[in-house]
Amino acid sequence: MDLIEREIKKIEKAIDKIFHENINLDTIRKQLKLFNDGGKVPVLVRPCTISDGIIQINPNEFDSLLKMHSEAAEEGRLMKFVPASGAASRMFQKLLSVLSENDELDLIALKKLAEEDKNYKAAYDLLTNINQFAFYDDIKAVLKVNDSKLNEIISNQPFKVLKVLLFEHGLNYASKPKGAIKFHKYENENRTAFEEHIYESINYLLDNSKQIKIHFTISEEHQGLFTNIIDEFKKKLKKDLKLIHSHSFQKKSTDTVAVNEDNEILFDKTGNIIMRPGGHGALIENLNDLNADIVIIKNIDNLSVEPLAEETVFYKKLLTGYLIQIQNQVFKYLRTLDNCNPETVDLEEIINFCKDKIFINTPAEFNSYSGSEKVNFLYKKLNRPIRVCGMVKNEGEPGGGPFWVKEDDGTLSLQIIEQAQINLNDEQQKKIFKGSTHFNPVDLVCGLRDYKGKNFNLHNFIDHQSGIITQKSKDGIQLKALELPGLWNGAMADWITVFIEVQISTFNPVKEINDLLRKQHQN
Q1: In Å, what is the CA distance from 347 to each residue of 68, 326, 337, 363, 364?
Q2: Which end of the chain is more exposed for a tag (fewer CB within 10 A), N or C?
Q3: Is residue 181 within 8 Å of residue 173, measured between CB atoms?
Q4: Neighbours of 41 (CB within 10 A)
């Protein structure tokens, strides 16, 4: 009996504990095989660059693309999808580290430590600029003080203010989701990330009925908090606007087993199988459930204040228009292929479109195919979900990038690849990865319906072998964990993919709390 079947036998008695989450033996068997074989390592051929995988839209096309966006928006075809289940704790790691090391310091002592330690500098910068944050009034309200009294507390007891910001007796920001953090300060209101996303969306989602549709993925524990924020927001919304909002949770059925170094399944102290969340790739399930037409995907922390969002809005419209332009042509060709005589149809125009516009190359043996084989090949390649992805010039920001990747059949495809996916011990692959000119800001517009108007089953277009194996620990136990293929990586590996250059001004992430002091987040 091989290792996998031995492990399956071991857990058969325990499987009923997770059956209710729709995790079955076959799912676990596949996960064990991935641990055993190792995840699929992509073969990078070269980075995508301008005119070689990345398109710079000609300004002459702007008007026609904006018109396509406008028509689709008015018809109610558009929805926004915002992954927002992550906790904000990472934003506050430096502050939490400072609090774990010291009981108390005054501001002068903190300033001295800040000159040598980045964690203390983060705390000092926040405290000395605290009136620039959208949560400034909330901190004063908890402490029941005015401006001058708060400044006095910051001078003598700065950690008291940090604790009010982070912990349960105060604002409890270290335990809240990022979407619930107040990001932006305005004259008459302060907006959370949830609220700012909705305000931004009004500019490119509004339909003829004055509706905007937006979907957030959130964690179950924060559902009440999310609902309260949205309910309060709706009271502020103009009366002629209607917010069609929905939310979902990452499904437990996408959890993955944990194993030890010998790829044996691990159990906790109570005898339960240790299961771990499958990562953001699990959200392909949520996307698949939407029954949506065109979906704009953007991360919860990528925002700017409203006066500076004009270029972001412009590129959202442009990317949407480009998707529709590609989609119209793809649908036209699919109808041709659906009704043609395979032996007499002229395929040259379709082949050139595939090569020049959506970066699909035919295999070396294509010319030896029969007419039916050529038609079937092209039909299969065109009848897939489409994604148009904004790409930003690389200026040292973290994140995956756009690459030409070699597939098993020898053809090349466009993929978004993270550093964690590649073999860094291979100097050539490492060099190609480092040579990327652009990075992925998570700025996607996705066409989820086929040429007959039916929604694709997105499960059919996942590269299930491209999960990432990582080293973790739980309750002092060292373990190997499996992340499912990333949402914009392996989970969309078999989509028609187009990369478009967008401006760096559209990318304004908040990874640390003091990022909110950047001009993009200040009014």
Answers
A1: 27, 18, 9, 15, 16
A2: N
A3: yes
A4: 14
Cβ pair 199, 233 in contact under 8 A: no
The structure tokens listed for 372 are 């039916």
**Residue 82 DSSP SS3:** strand
Instruction: Pull the structure tokens for residue 1.
Output: 């009996």
Dihedral of alpha carbons 266, 269, 271, 276, sign: negative
User: Do residues 507 and 303 lie in contact, with contact meaning Cβ atoms separated by under 8 Å?
Assistant: no
Give the C-alpha separation, 398 to 433, whole Å: 13
**Within 10 Å of residue 512's Cβ, how many Cβ atoms?**
16
Portion of the chain with pLDDT greater than 90, in percent: 80
Nearest to 330, CA basis, from 445, 491, 496, 501 = 496
Within 10 angstroms of residue 339's Cβ, the number of other Cβ atoms is 8
The token pair that represents 325 in the structure block: 């332009």
Please list the alpha-helical segments (H only) found in 83-222: 93-101, 107-114, 118-128, 136-143, 147-156, 158-166, 193-205
pLDDT given at position 291:
92
Contact between residue 171 and residue 88 where contact means Cβ atoms under 8 Å apart? no
Angle at alpha carbon of residue 415, lines to 412 and 418, rounded to 5°: 130
How many helices (H) and strands (E) the chain has is answered by 17, 19
Distances from the Cα of 412 to the Cαs of 73, 325, 327, 391, 431, in angstroms?
A: 34, 23, 21, 19, 19
For residues 517 and 305, give the distance between their C-alpha atoms in angstroms, rounded to a whole number: 12
β 468-474/49-50 pair status: unpaired
Copy the structure tokens of residue 338.
């659906």
Beta strand 496-501 with 386-393: parallel, antiparallel or unpaired?
parallel
pLDDT digits (tens, 9 = 90+) for 334-378: 999 998 888 888 899 999 999 999 999 999 899 999 999 999 999
User: In this predicted model, which residue has the larger pLDDT, 427 or 269?
Assistant: 427
Q: Among positive and negative, which fits the CA dihedral 482, 486, 492, 493?
A: negative
Helix%, strand%, coil% for the chain, nearest 5? 45, 20, 35
The CA dihedral of 29, 35, 37, 43, to the nearest 10 degrees, is 120
- Mean pLDDT score across all residues of the chain: 93
Q: How far is CA 173 from the centre of its chain?
A: 22
List helix spans (H) across 157-217: 158-166, 193-205
Q: What value, to the nearest 5°, has the Cα angle with vertex 294 and ends 289 and 299? A: 75
Q: Which residues pair with 445 in a beta bridge?
A: 296, 388
Note the pTM of the prediction, 2 decimals: 0.94
Residue 515 CA to residue 522 CA, distance in Å, equals 10
446 and 488 Cβ atoms separated by less than 8 Å: no
Could you report the per-residue pLDDT of 373-408, keeping only the tens digit for each? 999 999 999 999 999 999 999 987 656 999 999 998
| Cα Rg of the chain, angstroms | 25
Picking from 317, 308, 303, 328, the residue whose alpha carbon sits closest to that of residue 502 is: 317
